[in-house]
Design brief:
Layout: E1 4-8, H1 13-28, E2 32-40, H2 62-68, H3 79-97, E3 103-110, H4 112-122, E4 127-132, H5 137-143, H6 146-153, E5 158-162
Parallel strand pairs: 1-2, 1-4, 2-3, 4-5
Length: 167
């Protein structure tokens, strides 16, 4: 039924909640788990959510990143390299946690929901498993929802997993 499963991750709590489902489904169907991180280059934000930051953050501007990791925005260290390094770390960490499940990792750039859909089409994905932050009301309206956009426009089934509230 499922030969290729896509797990898009941004390293958030929502993505972590979805990972267990993606791994279990891949193991059950002996499917390949594709782990994808998309660096959001469609907005003025850098596109990666920093660990420990508010889940509502959609990315970091360069000044915020420099405050967290001094010197990262300087001439000596290109911020793009740091972003790609962190994104690669996210997919590698998930692939490692997948255990015996065959995995393929990828880092892409662009508008996140478009990049997810493009990847799914290019790699003949049978199922997308992704986390959602569970935002509601004005916060959802203002920030939008990548998961919602993927669900509404995907040609393949999408399983969304809402992260439980952290205590």
């Amino acid at each position: 039924m499922y030969d290729d499963i896509l797990f898009p991750t941004d390293g958030s709590h929502g993505a972590s909640a979805a990972f267990e489902h993606a791994r279990d489904i891949a193991a059950t169907y002996d499917a390949t788990l594709h782990v994808l991180t998309v660096v959001d280059t469609s907005s003025p934000h850098i596109g990666m959510t920093a660990e420990g930051r508010d889940e509502g953050a959609t990315g970091m501007i360069a000044a915020e990143h420099d405050a967290i990791e001094p010197g990262m925005v300087s001439e000596e260290h290109d911020i793009g390299d740091a972003i790609v390094e962190r994104a690669t770390g996210l997919v590698d960490e998930a692939a490692s946690a997948a255990g015996d499940v065959e995995t393929v990792t990828a880092v892409s750039g662009g508008d996140p929901h478009s990049a997810i859909l493009d990847y799914a089409a290019e790699h003949d994905i049978d199922l997308v498993v992704m986390g959602t932050h569970g935002r509601t009301g004005i916060e959802r309206y203002l920030l939008g929802s990548i998961a919602e956009k993927v669900v509404r426009t995907s040609d393949v089934p999408v399983l969304t997993v809402r992260a439980e509230d952290e205590d």
